[in-house]
What we know:
The chain is an all-alpha fold. Helix content is 85%, strand content 0%. It is rod-shaped.
Amino acid sequence: MSDVVAVALVSGGASLLAASVGALTTYKVNLRNTEATIATAQSQHEVELARIEAENERLLDTNREEERRNRQSTYHRYLNAVVGIYQLMGLEVSAKQVNETRQDYRYLHSGVVLFGPPCVRAAANEVSGAYNEVWVAMARQREEYSEKTEPERWRDATATLKENFSEKIVNLIDAMHADVTRGITQDPGIDS
Length: 192
């Protein structure tokens, strides 16, 4: 083989080797850049997911707070109706007064039973059971004391039921308070 051919082969081989090393270096640099790009994209993706999760949690908290406010408002109106009935017990009041209070009570009782948690539903149903005793006592009054007026019957029928009704109201208030203050208040008399 001639020296020229040998030099050409060595030069060609060196060029080929240099080109290969250059290509390999470029490949590795591109691979590192791609890995860095992927890592950056993954990091940005994780940041975006964390932001979305935080926003979802904020929206859930907002919805929970709105639901709590709605229950709180319903509970307050319901307690006003229940206390209104309690205040009429043992007094001579007209059927009109009883019916007005009764309508508010029935409407709000349905909302409390429908949307309240189990402990509030149970307490509201206890109040309802005590309230239903009024109508049994009223029927007895009508049957046994036809000479009395309706307001007198109401007074006599409800006078003995007032204490039991009061106890049911206290239990109801405790259950409602526990529901609407869960996670937002703590009794100052209890050590944390």
